[in-house]
Write a structure and sequence with these properties.
Length: 166
């Protein structure tokens, strides 16, 4: 029968140890991380690349013969939303009733195509637009627009657009 193992014996001297592997300091990895990020970013397509060219469309809205301040103008693409480049061009009139429609940035214009214009006169509160329509919804239906515009590759001035409260 084999002799039982003695677990009380100790090994003389300290246990041999291996030095811990040295990891490079974090700052030495930064150039590699930055390079990887740049490489990935260069391969990806920017959302700005998908933007369609835009052309200025401006006008002035008068209600009952007076300039209409803070009136919202929207341009709906006739035939429906462009699924590849969906956008809803819009503007809010200034104190003199003037507006320039924008798609991506204020004042940049709208892409080519035919649009139905709608007009809603609520209340602008900072970045929000709400309240009852002072025009009672008469000019808010893109299926039955008061005005349409065909945008080509040049600026358009719609002149004065006359609306009425009654």
């Amino acid at each position: 029968m084999p002799e039982p193992l003695d677990t009380t014996r100790t090994i003389p001297g300290p246990l041999p140890t291996r030095p811990a592997p040295r990891r490079p300091a974090a700052w030495t990895r930064l150039p590699w991380i930055a390079l990887a990020c740049l490489a990935l970013g260069a391969c990806q397509k920017s959302a700005l690349d998908d933007r369609l060219p835009t052309y200025p469309v401006k006008g002035q809205v008068l209600v009952d013969g007076q300039p209409a301040a803070q009136l919202k103008v929207k341009a709906y693409r006739v035939g429906g939303l462009d699924k590849a480049n969906p956008a809803l061009p819009q503007a809010i009139t200034d104190d003199q009733g003037n507006f320039t429609l924008f798609t991506y940035n204020v004042g940049d214009g709208i892409p080519t195509g035919q649009y139905a214009l709608t007009f809603v006169w609520g209340q602008a509160n900072g970045s929000r637009y709400s309240g009852p329509d002072k025009l009672a919804g008469r000019y808010a239906d893109p299926q039955n627009p008061l005005k349409t515009v065909q945008v080509a590759d040049k600026p358009i001035d719609l002149g004065q657009i006359q609306l009425a409260t009654h």
